[in-house]
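Build the 3D complex.
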Amino acid sequence: MVRLKGTSSEREFLHQVIDESGQNLLECLQCGKCSGGCPIASNEVGGPRRLIAQILGGMKEQALKDPTWWYCVSCGTCATRCPVEINMYKVSTVLCEIAEKEKVTPSEPDIHRFEELFLESVRKHGRVQEMKTAMAYNLRSWKPFKDAGMGFKLMIKGAVSPMDMLAGKRKEDAAVGRIFQRLQQDKNGE
Amino acid sequence: MKVSYYPGCSLEALAKPYNNSTRSICRMLDVELHEPLGWSCCGSSAALKIDGLLSVSLAAHNLAKTEKVGPSDVLIPCPFCYRRLLSAQQELQADLNLKAKVESTIEADIEGRLSIHNILNFFRNVVGLEEIMSRVKKPLNGIKVLPYYGCYLVKPPGVTSFDDPEDPVSMDQILRSLGAEVLDWDFKTECCGSGLALSKTEKVVELSGRLVREAVWRGADAIVVVCQLCHANLDMRQDEMGRLHGEKYRLPIIYLTQLMGLAFGVEPGSLGLNHHLVNPLPVLKGI
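Done.
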């Protein structure tokens, strides 16, 4: 079956996704089992089958702006049910990396913001400071009181301490900081 | 028995009850836990999305720390940490170029010799049902529970090779050996919305809401979980689910390890049962 159309740079995109993810999208049957079981697929969020069709059709711009891979929670249901064993969370990683490299504006800024804040907490402290990250996320989203009631209840129940929320409780973890630094240097070609 | 124990970030924060109950039942089962010094975050689903090499490197950093501890059997209660560390070990063994790159990034060598166990595999297959049954002092008679496995423990089978990805049974078996009445349902491995908890809360309310609605309809006293994110999504969003469905939900969400502790005779207070938003103590008071 010949699906490739378009310019050589579009074909290049398909082969880049296949090479970097290790997932042979050319075997895709478009059967739709992935989207049928995918928890985040909906009319608004297309789902894995449509995303694969875009990549196979050389629609690079659409694929890099597709909300599916931002929403992907790496549950592995698609990989479990796919008759040719395509694992789409590996494709999500590659699309996210290409989109970042090519400075494509994230189509799902909320999810992007949360994941960046999560990793920022890991870079700084070595372990993610859960409560502090949640607070920072709600503040940056201009919804400071979104889960405030719940946080208060959890405090009353003794499930979290106010200190966790405000300060976090860890100093720096130099070894983890170095891992982030080295990988960033590689990306910058230093 | 001596095993290495990697708790992960969540179990030090919101999921302290999961951590404390796991530690206390391990003590009762004569399982000695050795926590690696200076462990860090595994990168979880955020690193997996944003940066593949960072994701493998963070997991590998912890593999290296754990290899230093000694016992090659590793217990990892958090399903995210479990699948990330297991997957990284497999990826490094399969790709020597990646291994060299990662080892130079983390400044440590990886032997790749760890036997990584999730909580269900550890209790069901390493400890064993007979051993568990022999420790039961207060059987959970008369309590109707629905086991909820979530995604990361069983999916995808190419990574976890554990139980059945669509209809797992290991938690059912453990719960039965504690004396509980285990109900059946089709939602054992349906997703709760996972890491979208804060960024797409409405999606989590929709997905977790389906689980709670089904569990209530089946007449369950509680849903039993083995993941702190499943716990948070199911326990904390019931008001929002209720508003969506025009219902009022008060369904307790309990960690398997808390029920094991209770059946083994541990005080409910030290199991953190009082920390959940939906108080599970009323349905457990007969024990």
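The two ends of chain A are 43 Å apart (CA to CA).
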